[in-house]
């Protein structure tokens, strides 16, 4: 089984839906340790992405669809999340190129390049209480699943489960990057909003892949 542009478009739709549904919760997380606008910013950004999907030709590759996410987020989302997630999608789409179908190794390549883009742009590492704490476990779990011969859908599900665990793991951490770093110990006990939204985004990719598996 492979994943194609239908999966990529479904992933974008599902992400827009979940970010809209969770925007108040994400903004509340951000109010506790940041500016308080993370959910609103992401909801606006992914709504703009969905509006622009019609610009893609029917034969557009998954990489082209995901590159559209990158450019739209960078141009419409304020704060740190737009450039960080935009870079993630940009680097990830470059890693898969114009392939019409993505196998498990391609999914791992996308996730790895996306994570590396976040690290490059944000200069963060695991334990800094950022979205890297969700992306890195997702990459590790995806790579392990692919090495075991898992399908792309199972690779993404492994990544989503690990990202959720990674997001939860930020709660006891002291932030070392961003606005939350100014809070010191007061950030302990609060989940990082970027890690949480990243977990939701990766889960949406897995849900879309499950849908593609059932259709096939």
UniProtKB/TrEMBL annotation:
The keyword Glycosyltransferase does not apply. One of its GO terms (cellular component) is cytosol. Residues 6-207 form the DhaL domain. Keywords: Kinase, Transferase. Its EC number is 2.7.1.-. GO terms for molecular function: glycerone kinase activity. GO terms for biological process: glycerol catabolic process. This is Dihydroxyacetone kinase subunit L. It comes from Frigoribacterium faeni.
């Amino acid at each position: 089984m492979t994943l194609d542009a239908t999966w990529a478009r479904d992933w974008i739709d599902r992400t827009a839906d979940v970010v809209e549904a969770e925007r108040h919760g994400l903004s509340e997380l951000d109010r506790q340790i940041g500016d308080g606008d993370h959910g609103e910013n992401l909801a606006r950004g992914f709504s703009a992405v969905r509006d622009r999907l019609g610009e893609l030709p029917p034969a557009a590759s998954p990489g082209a669809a995901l590159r559209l996410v990158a450019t739209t987020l960078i141009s419409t989302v304020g704060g740190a999340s737009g450039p960080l997630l935009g870079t993630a999608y940009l680097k990830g789409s470059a890693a898969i190129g114009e392939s019409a179908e993505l196998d498990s190794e391609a999914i791992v390549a996308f996730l790895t390049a996306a994570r590396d883009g976040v690290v490059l742009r944000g200069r963060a590492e695991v334990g800094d209480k950022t979205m890297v704490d969700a992306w890195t476990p997702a990459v590790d779990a995806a790579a392990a699943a692919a090495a075991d011969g898992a399908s792309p859908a199972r690779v993404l599900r492994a990544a989503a489960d690990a990202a959720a665990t990674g997001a939860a793991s930020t709660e006891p951490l002291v932030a070392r990057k961003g606005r939350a770093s100014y809070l010191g110990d007061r950030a302990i006990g609060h989940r990082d909003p970027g890690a949480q939204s990243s977990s939701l985004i990766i889960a949406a990719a897995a849900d879309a892949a499950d849908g593609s598996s059932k259709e096939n």
